[in-house]
Amino acid sequence: MKVLVAVKRVVDYNVKVRVKADNSGVDLANVKMSMNPFCEIAVEEAVRLKEKGVATEIVVVSIGPSTAQEQLRTALALGADRAILVESADELNSLAVAKLLKAVVDKEQPQLVILGKQAIDSDNNQTGQMLAALTGYGQGTFASKVEVSGDSVAVTREVDGGGQTVSLKLPAIVTTDLRLNEPRYASLPNIMKAKKKPLEVLTPDALGVSTASTTKTLKVEAPAARSAGIKVKSVAELVEKLKNEAKVI
Amino acid sequence: MTILVIAEHDNKVLAPATLNTVAAAVKIGGDIHLLVAGQGAGAVAESAAKIAGVAKVLVADNAAYAHQLPENVAPLVAELGAGYSHILAAATSNGKNILPRVAAQLDVDQISEIISVESADTFKRPIYAGNAIATVQSSAAIKVITVRATGFDPVAAEGGSAAVEAVAAVHDAGTSSFVGEELAKSDRPELTAAKIVVSGGRGMQNGDNFKHLYALADKLGAAVGASRAAVDAGFVPNDMQVGQTGKIVAPQLYIAVGISGAIQHLAGMKDSKVIVAINKDEEAPIFQVADYGLVADLFEAIPEFEKLV
Lengths: 249, 309
What we know:
- The complex is a heterodimer of chains A (249) and B (309).
- In chain A, 28% of the residues lie in helices and 31% in strands.
- Chain A has a single domain (2-245), classed as Rossmann fold (3-Layer(aba) Sandwich).
- With 249 residues, chain A is an alpha/beta fold.
- Chain A is globular.
- Chain A has 7 helices and 13 strands.
- Chain B has 309 residues and is of the alpha/beta class.
- Chain B has 2 domains: 2-166, HUPs (Rossmann fold); 196-308, Rossmann fold.
- Helix content of chain B is 25%, strand content 28%.
- Chain B has 8 helices and 16 strands.
- In chain B, helix 5 (210-220) links the parallel strand 12 (196-200) and strand 13 (223-226).
- The longest helix of chain B has 13 residues, at 93-105.
- The chains are: A alpha/beta (249), B alpha/beta (309).
- At the A-B interface, helix 3, helix 4, strand 7, strand 8 and strand 9 of A face helix 3, helix 4, strand 5, strand 7 and strand 8 of B.
- Chain B: Heterodimer of an alpha and a beta subunit.
- Chain B: The electron transfer flavoprotein serves as a specific electron acceptor for other dehydrogenases. It transfers the electrons to the main respiratory chain via ETF-ubiquinone oxidoreductase (ETF dehydrogenase).
- Chain B: Its cofactor is FAD.
- Chain B: Residues 3-182 form the Electron transfer flavoprotein alpha/beta-subunit N-terminal domain.
- Chain B: Belongs to the ETF alpha-subunit/FixB family.
C-alpha cells in the first residue's frame, strides 16, 4: 500500500512571533523554521505503518517555497522513500493547497493520505477535509489511532466529548492529532542517506491547478495585551481578592 | 442576504455553541436559517425554533446523518447552502470536521474560527496560536465560516418562533461508517460553557492528584481542564485539553494550577476575564498573563483554597 504524507514548513513552535510594524503580517525574517508538529506526527505514523508491513512506499509532499526542501529531507531522513515539492513562493490558502494535493493524489494513487490536522501558523484546520471533498474519499480527522485492515481503515478521533471511532473505505484521508504517536528523531546515518533519496520539484502550472483565492488579508495586528496582574502572598488573600475585588466567586 | 447556520447537537440536545454562532450571524445581518441534520432530532429542532433571531429551521432527519459523518452531512450542507450568502458553523470538532469539506465542494475558501464580524464580508481571526489577529476579507459568493464561540455572546435560547421545515435530501456516500464512541461523562459544567474553569498541568504530577482540582471545582461549580502536558502524560483524557489545538475557553475565572504557560496553552485561555495562576516556579510564564499570581506548592494551596470558598 502506498501512503502519501503532506508536510508544511512553518515557523518553529517555540518561536513567539511578532507582528510587523506595518501590519502586513508577522515577521518571519531570521526566524527558525521547522516541519509543522502535526505533520511530523503524520510522517511518523506512515513510517510505523511501513515498519508493520502495512505500507510499502511512503511519498512525502510539500506545497511551499523552495526552502521547504529542508522539511522534505527531514521526512526522508525519518523514513519516507521519496519526496515531491510543489513549489510556490506565494502563501497559498487551504483550498489551493488541497487542489494541488488532489493533483498529486491523481498522479500517485495512494491508498492512504496522512496530513496534520492543522498548521500552527495559519491555524486553519482545513486542508485534509478539503482534500477529502475533492477526492470524494472518506476522512478520519483528529486521529489518535489508525488501524488498517484489508480495504478499510479504522480511525479513532479526538472529539469534543471524548473519542469517536469511524471506519473508512480505502483510499481515505487521515489527519493527525497530538496523541497519535510520538515522533522519533532522525539518526545521523539516516540524515546522510536522505540526501540521496529522490526529490521531485513540480509547479502548480505543471499540475494544471489555479491557486487563485477569494480571501484577502487586510491587516495583521498584535492581540490586545493583558495588563500585568499582582502577586498575592497567601491563599486567604487570593480568595479575598476574588470575592471582593474581582467579584468572580 | 440569508445565512445558514449549522446546528451543533447530539440528536437530543442543542449545544450552547449554536447560540454563539447565531450571534455571529446576527452581526453579519440578514435572515437566519438553522439546519438540524441528524436522526430523531425532533427535540433539537424544537429548541432551535425557539432561538431568538432564527427565521426558519430546516430539519434533515435520516440515519445517514445520525453521527454527523462529514461524507454525508457535507454534501447536504453544500446542496442547501448553495442558495445562501453565508454558511456558519461553530468551531467545534464537528464544525471543523464538516465545514471545510462543504467549502471545497462549493469551491470557496473557508474562514476558520472568526472572533469578530467587521462587516458582512470582513472578519477577524487569530493566527499563530493567537499571537496575531488577522483581518480577512472574502469575495466568495458564499462565505463559509467557522465561529469561535468565545468571541460572541450567545443569543437568547428562547423568544423566537421559527417555522420548521423538513428537508428530504438524503446523501449517503457509503465511504464511511460510525463504529463507536467513548464520551466522557461528567456532572460538572461543560468546559467551553463554564463560568469558572480550574485547569491542571504537569505540576499535578499524576492523574490521581487531579482529585484535588475536582474537589475545588465542585465547590466553585467549575469545569476542570488541563494543559497539553497533562494530557500527553496520560493524567487526564484529551477532551479536557485547553489550548491552541484543544478547547478554547473564556470563562469569568480561569484558575491555572501547576501550568507553566506555554504559548500553545495561553492561546486557549487568555481571553478569560480573570486569570489566577498557582505555581511554585515564580518564573513561570503563566504569571505574565495572570491577574492574580500565587507562588506556592499547589498541594498545600489547593486544599486550603477549597476550604476557604
